[in-house]
Amino acid sequence: MREDVSQMKWWGWGDEHTEFDASDKPGLMPFISRALGLQEEDEQVVGPVALEDVELPSQVLTQGFLDEMRSSLREDQVKTGDKERLVHSYGKSFRDLWRIRRGIVDSSPDCVIYPESEDDICALVKAALAHDVVLIPFGGGSNIAGCLENRESNSRMVVSLDMKRMDRVVEVDADSCVARIEGGTPGPVMEKQLNEQGFTLGHFPDSFEFSTVGGWVATRSAGMQSDKYGKIEDMVLSLRMVTPSGVLVTRTVPKSSNGIDVNHICIGSEGILGVITEVSMRVHRLPERKEFYGYLFPDFESGVRAVRECVDADCMPCIARLNDPGKTALSFAFKSKSGETFFKKLLGKAVKKYLSAVKGFDMDKVCLMIMAVEGDSRTFRRLRSQVHSIYKKNGAFKLGISPGRAFQKSKYDFPYLRDFAMDRGVVCDVSETSTVWSNLLPLYYSTIKSIEEAILSTGVQSFAGCHISHCYHTGTSLYFTFACMENGKGTIDQYLRIKKAAEDAFLRGGATLSHHHAVGYEHAPWIEDDISETGLLAVRAIKDGIDPAGVMNPGKILPGDRPLEDWGLAEDEAQESQEAGS
Amino acid sequence: MREDVSQMKWWGWGDEHTEFDASDKPGLMPFISRALGLQEEDEQVVGPVALEDVELPSQVLTQGFLDEMRSSLREDQVKTGDKERLVHSYGKSFRDLWRIRRGIVDSSPDCVIYPESEDDICALVKAALAHDVVLIPFGGGSNIAGCLENRESNSRMVVSLDMKRMDRVVEVDADSCVARIEGGTPGPVMEKQLNEQGFTLGHFPDSFEFSTVGGWVATRSAGMQSDKYGKIEDMVLSLRMVTPSGVLVTRTVPKSSNGIDVNHICIGSEGILGVITEVSMRVHRLPERKEFYGYLFPDFESGVRAVRECVDADCMPCIARLNDPGKTALSFAFKSKSGETFFKKLLGKAVKKYLSAVKGFDMDKVCLMIMAVEGDSRTFRRLRSQVHSIYKKNGAFKLGISPGRAFQKSKYDFPYLRDFAMDRGVVCDVSETSTVWSNLLPLYYSTIKSIEEAILSTGVQSFAGCHISHCYHTGTSLYFTFACMENGKGTIDQYLRIKKAAEDAFLRGGATLSHHHAVGYEHAPWIEDDISETGLLAVRAIKDGIDPAGVMNPGKILPGDRPLEDWGLAEDEAQESQEAGS
Fold first, then answer.
1. B514 near B433, Cβ under 8 Å?
2. Ramachandran area for residue B477 (φ above 0: left; ψ -120 to 50: alpha; else beta)
3. What is the ipTM for the molecules in this complex?
4. Would residue B479 show up in a list of annotated catalytic residues for this protein?
5. Residue of chain B whose Cα is closest to the Cα of A539
C-alpha cells in the first residue's frame, strides 16, 4: 500500500483527530475568496506523496549505541524505520506542513526511542553521552517554533526521544491540590485522569489534543483559560529533569527563596538541557458552573477598554477572547450551518439596522468577544453580572449563549482550518507576543501594518487579524493571524518574509518574540534582541555547564553566528535585513 | 568622642528608626521571664564597645583600583574609613548582632563605594575585573542570611557596593501599572513616591523600613500582604543587572516564552552574578478601604482549616497571619498599655469564662489571627463578610478592630524586640519555610519538636512558636520564632545548634530551606539537599559563565567542600552531623 505522507497535517499520521467538515461551514469559502482573492481554480491538491517517493536524509546509525539501547530496552522501544523517522522529522509549523505536503524532508532523526520510565531515559542519556549521539525530546509533536527538528550540524546520529508512553497522572494530593504527572501525558489523557478525581489543571492551549505536560513546561505554554489558571510556569511546583549531568530534582513546595530558581532553569528549556520526566502541578477542583457568552463591541478599542476595566475591578472571566475586526469576520465565516441560521436570525437585517442606526455600530469595525465565566454558583453569578456591566458600559451588545457555545464546541478547530486553507494554496500562520497596556494599541496597529505591507510586497492580497486572549494586571498577549495566496514562486520565501515582518514589528515595538510559542529555531534570530547579549550568555552558560557534550537538542534557542541565514533567508537578503535592523 | 558600635542593632548606626518602648509593654518582661526563665539579674549590658577598641581585619587596598575609582567617581563616593567598613561588615542576622555587640568583627570590606548611576556601577565592575577586586552589593543592610558579609578566601581587596544613592522611582506608567524603580530604593522612600502618584507596590516585608527594591529581588523576598500582591518574583516585569559580562537587560512585558527566563536567573541571585540597578515592577492603585481585624481560634488546627477554606473559596484577605499558641502568647505580651486595657476588658474574666465554658476554648491553645481586608467598598464588604463566615464556621471568636489596629501600628516592631531580648542575654531568631497543605501540620509539629529538643539539649528552657502568613493554592509558609537564655558558654555554638535543628527539620520534612530569607552562607549547607546536585551544578554554571573571575559576592548560595564547617560548626560536630544526616 502506498501511504500518503501528505496526510500528515495538524494531526499526526494515523492519530485520532477531529473531522474538520468544511461543508458545515457555508460562509468559509466565500470569506476566503473575498479576503484573499482565492479563485475556484486555485484549489491545489498536493500529492499524494507516497512514503517510498520521499527521499529521507541518509541515516546515521551508531552501532554501539543501538546495541546498548537494545540491551537495556525492549525491541519495540527502539525504531529506525522510515515511517517513524518521517513522523518525528518536524513539528507542526506552517513551514513544517508546507514541506511535508510536498515530500520535502530535508532533516530527520535517525532513530526513534520510546522510554517507559525515568530509568529508561537515564540509560538513554548515558548511552548517548558514551557514543556522542544527539537526543531530541518529542512530546505531542505539535510545536510550531521548530523545537523538534533535527538541526545537528556535526553528522552525529540523532535520536528522537518520544515521551508518549509516559502518560500517567502518577498521584493526586487532593488535600494540597497538587498532581504529579509524567512528562509525556497528552492533554486529554491527563484531564480524563484528573477529572475522575474531581480536578482539572485548567490548561487548554489550542494544541491541547496533541500536546503534552512536559512539552507545555519546556515551552512556557499558555492555555485559553490562563486568565483564571495562569500560564504553565505559574502552575509548576516541582519537576524532575534527566540531563547529561544527572537528574535535576526540585522540591514540591509552593514557593521558596533558595537562590536562583532552578525550576525556572528547566521551564522554557525546550529540550536543550534535558528531558522533563515528571512535573508536580497545581490543580483545581472542577468548577460547579461554567458558561460561554458572545458579545459584540463597536470596535477593538472599546473591547480593549472593557478587558482592562475587568482586570482593574478584579473580575476577569476565565476566558475573554477579544477578536479584532479581521478575526471577527473570520469567526463569523467559521460558523456552522446551525450557527449560520442563528446569526441570520440574530444579526438579521432588523438587528443590523438597530446596531447601525440606534447604537451607531460600523459593521466593518465590530469586534466579537467570547467570554466564559466559571465557579461556584455565587461566584459565577457575581462575576457574570460584573463583567456584563463593564461590557455594557463600554458599548457592547450581548449576543448571548449561542456564539459562546459554538466557540466552546469548535475551540480546538482553528489549526484544522490551516490545513484546509493550505489545501487551497493559502499561506497562513500566526505570530504572537505580549506587551503592557500603554503599548497595546500602538503595537497592534504597527504590527498589522507591517504584516500587511509584507504580504502586499509579495504581490498578493492580504489578510491580517488579531485577538487578545491572555490578560494580566500590566498588559496582554496579542495573537496575530495572517494569510494570503501563494504567489506562485513555489518557495518558502514568501512565508519567511511575512513571518519576519511580524517578529521585527514585535521587537521594534518593545514587545517579546513570543508569548507562549517558544523560541526553537524559528524565533532564534530574535532572541538576542529580546533577552540581551548578556542574557543570552547566561543561557549559553547553563547549556555548556549541564550539557558540555552538546547532545541535547542542538540548534534551539541559541542562535548560530548567522541566525537569519540559518533560519532560511538567502545570504543577501539576510545581510540586507541585518543592515536595516542595525 | 567614643562611639559605641554595639549601638548597631536592627537599625544601622545613625539610621533613623522607630523607638522601641518596652515600658509601654507591661506584659513583655513577665512573659519573657515565664517563657525563658529569665531572672532579673540576667540583664546583660554588653558594651559600650567603642570603635577604637574594635580590631577590624587588616585592610587590603589595591592602589590601582582606588586610583581608577577616584578618577571616575567623586571623592565622597569612595570611602575606606573604619566606620564605613564596620557598618558594611554584616547584615542583621542573630549571628551578626551577637558579634557586633561584642565588638567581634572577624570580616569586613576594605572599602565602601556609593554609585549614583548605572554608569558608575559599570565603571566599578570594569575596574574590579581589571584589578581582581571583589564586590559585595549592599542594599539596606537588613539581610539575615549572611548575604552581605565578606567571605573572600583569596585575600583580594573587597568592596561593599552601597546602593543607597540610587533611590528613585524613575517612572510610573500609570496606564500599565508598571513602575521603573532604582535598585537602591528603600521601602518607605519607594512607597512615598508611588503613593504620591496613587500607587502602591504592595510589598511590606518586616524589614520594610531598611530594605531596598534590589535587595528584595535579589533575595526573593515576601511581604506581609503577599496573599493579595504576590511574592516579589511575581511582581517583576523586567530588570537591568550589571554583571562582569556586561549589562543584562530584559524587556518590560507581562509574560513571554523566550526560552529559559533570564529574569529568573537574576531574581534570587543574591549578588553572585551582578548588581540589580533597576527593576520594572507591577504596581497597584491604592485601595479605597482597608481594615485590620483580630480573631481568636480555639486552636491552631481550626485556624489552618479556616485559612484553607478561604483559599478554596477564593476570598483570601490581603493579610491572614495565624499565630500558633506560642506566638499568640507572645503577641498578647507585646501589646501596649492601651491594648492591655482593651484586652483586660475584652478578655476579662467574664469573656474568658464564656470562651472556656460556652465555646469550650482551652485558653492555652487559643490562636490569634490578624486579618486585613482591602479593596473598593463593594469588594471590601464582600470579602470581609465571606472571611468572617468561614472563620466563624471554624469556631473563631471575633476580637474586632482593636487588635488588628494594634498589629498595624506595631507591624515593623518585631525585629526591635530581638534587640531588646538580646540586651537581656536571650538567644532568639527565626527560621521559615513553606510546604504543601497535606504536609503543613506534620511539618509544624516536627519542627517545633526539633527546635525545642535542640534548645533543651543546650541546658536551658525553650520557647518555640510559629505563624502562617503567606498562603497559596497549594500550601503556605511556616515562620518559626525560637528563643532561650544564653547558656553561659559565651560562644555562638548554642545558636548554631538550634538553627541547624530547624533547617534539618525543614529538609527532612520535605520542605525548603527558606521561603523568603535567601540562602547567603547561613543556609548554604542545605542548598544541595534542596535543589539537588544537578540543580546546584546549573547554578554554578551560570556563576562561572557570567562571572568567571569570581569577583561578585563569593561564598554565597554555593557551598564549599565542607559546608557545615564553613558555616561555623566545629570540625568534629560537623562530621557528626553529616554522618547523622546521611
1. yes
2. beta
3. 0.96
4. yes
5. B260
